[in-house]
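Two folds, back to back.
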Amino acid sequence: MTTTSMQPAAADKSHMRRVLFSSYLGSVVEFYDFLLYGIAASLVFAHIFFANMDPVVGTIASFGTLAAGYFSRPLGGIIFGHFGDKLGRKSMLVITMTLMGGASTLIGLLPTYDQIGSMAPILLVVLRLIQGVAVGGEWGGAALMSLEHASAKNRGLAASVANMGGPSGALLATLSMTAFSTLPKEDFLNWGWRVPFLFSAVLLLVGLFVRLRVSESPLFAAEKASAASKEKTGSPLVVVLRRYPKNVALATLGGSAAFLLQGLLATFAITLAVQSGADRTAVLLVHACATGLHIVTIPAFAILSDRIGRRPVMIGGAIAGALLAYPIFQMLGSGNLILVLLAFLIGNPLIQASMYGPMSAFISEMFGTGARYTGASLGYQLAATLGAGLAPLSAAGLLALGGGKDPVFVSLMVSAVCVISAVAIYLTRESFRSELGKEPTVPARAAAHIQ
């Protein structure tokens, strides 16, 4: 693989706004669908798809289907990363959005266990796997379309719009599910939960309309137009594994803590708060309040990383997560709605956002243009799988280990992962002033630790 030394000129303002809006809206649609599933797994699926099981076992099984979507995310990153690095970012983003919208709409139409027996959870898992493949390919393209259109001094902010789609989609998903959770329990479980999934079809049409109106990444176009790039370089995945294995490892470990908190606060925390005595609808509303603030703090921390660097911002967040994990989960398990709100406010808009805001640029800047979609997607999605994919399932098991009420072991898990992420981020090279066209490297200190 070769690289080009050109640095992208900033797109004209109107087109740049369209690019950013496309990346943001596309991520909103993708994460609305993906995270809506998490809320439904917390509140609904154990009752209708695993109705033949003990309630505790049913909850664990429900979170297991949630994890399946995370395990398929790296596969989506590899598949769409390959074609995104070969054919372009834009076309892959249209496909991933269509896959996600279609799978989510079908989930809303699925018959229950009482209607078709064991085929119900099997079909649910299949559709969840398709969701995972779709969102696995979405993030890399959305982040790179913004990053590679942006000027050097605003890359962190531009790339963060893809991550802003996460809490925005979560907020939309939470509000839509909250509206129907006010129904009588029987109506909610029979049909109310389905409406937010069926709404995915409407979001898909809007997202595709916007996404089809943006141009291809200028850095990708320049890479493919250069004479040197026409040489046979092989698969982007092979290039990533040969040239950037340490970067992938550091991206995976460095991003794990942010995803662990994201996964726990979007799913397990809701279950914990409700089981501890807090009202279900009230918990969803306070979660929505924190998520709304989260949308604002993600770009704020990204802007800070454009000024002082990615590493200090993300390491600060990881250290804060390690220190505050215990009080956060004690508040979530208190049954007191004010303490639950405080836990969500500290956990998402402050700690998680400080790691998540700079993450798109942090990971993307680790790879050269010709393999950036594949490399960044692989690192990001492995971090998501390792962090968020196993989080609710692991937390449910650790909560049971603590007697079913005390989340102390969950807190210890969060603290340990935050420390691991802080160390991995420290081992990377600061990249906020780097030139995207130049070959990225890993510091000698990291090479010594990853052998």
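---
second:
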Amino acid sequence: MTPPGHRTLSTAALVGVLALTSACGSDDALRAGQEPPAAPEDIACFGGSVSAAGSSAQENAMYTWIAGYQLACSDSLVLYDSVGSGAGRSQFLESAVDFAGSDAALDEQEHEQARRRCADGSPAVNIPGYVVPIAVIFDLEGVDALNLPPETLARIFNQDITHWNDPEIAEHNPDAELPDLRITPVSRADDSGTTENFTGYLTAAAGDAWPHDTGGTWPIEPVEAAQGNSGISEAVEAGSGTIGYVEASHTADMATVSVGVGGEFVDVSPDSASRVVESSPEREGGTEHDHALELDHGTTESGTYPIVLVTYEVACMRYGTEREAERVRAFLDYVLSEEGQEAASAETGSAPLPADTRTRLRASVAEITSVG
């Protein structure tokens, strides 16, 4: 039964849940050609269900985690609704789901709301679970690679550069045959952590070329808009002269932009993206077990890809019952395990969390408890 207040599952998650529920731990839970995700020998299983909602950026990773966990724990059911980070945080704060996936950490106001949602006024915490680059994808006949500095990217998405043969684009791509074709930027229609991280990058790196604040909603009237990472990917692929931004596992075989960093152009990859996270400190002012990061989107370090998102698993430190606490604790521990991180990386191209980081985060998850 769908938990009260839980919305319709996304297609990918629903297919996964139905397959996993009916398969009772068999390989039928997997996508065609997918290897069974490994699970730790000491994995903690629970009976019943745990529900979550949020980031579409981690949708593919979550499908993999659900498959791995439920294959190891046949009596457990994990429900995930890929509705976008903003909606996921709202559902969590309204107690409609047990935890949320969000590409942006809870802000100060949301932390206050969370103390009313969590048991005994306990805090909610941001636990980094998924680190992945945001790729800038495009569809332009005859062109399979582009170099774009941050100022040029900002002017394209701000609709100041409107045609592909603009001199500013041509300057950095002398060997490309750029057509006199109108550029169609595709942005998110929903409140999105991917948008918040992408606009955060433009704010930090593009200077006056991006005259907008960082935020989860697109700041200007869009040329074309789509729901979720999958929606942008489909819109860019179906168009001509289109360009958009997606979590890297949604790029399929589409062309991607190499981004200007310092005096070079850097390709999107897990290795180049992980360098930003490794050097990013935790946000000041948080509680002991809150691990929100201050990402340096404006870095000029060589070989570093700066457009990165970290998806957080947002959970209470105390729940009303031990049953709730146990289920959240067990599943998030699997997400943060070496096996869970490697499974997501193999499926999506994400950067697995370093071992010392995983140890620290799992120690925080182990402290999730109940009032009873």
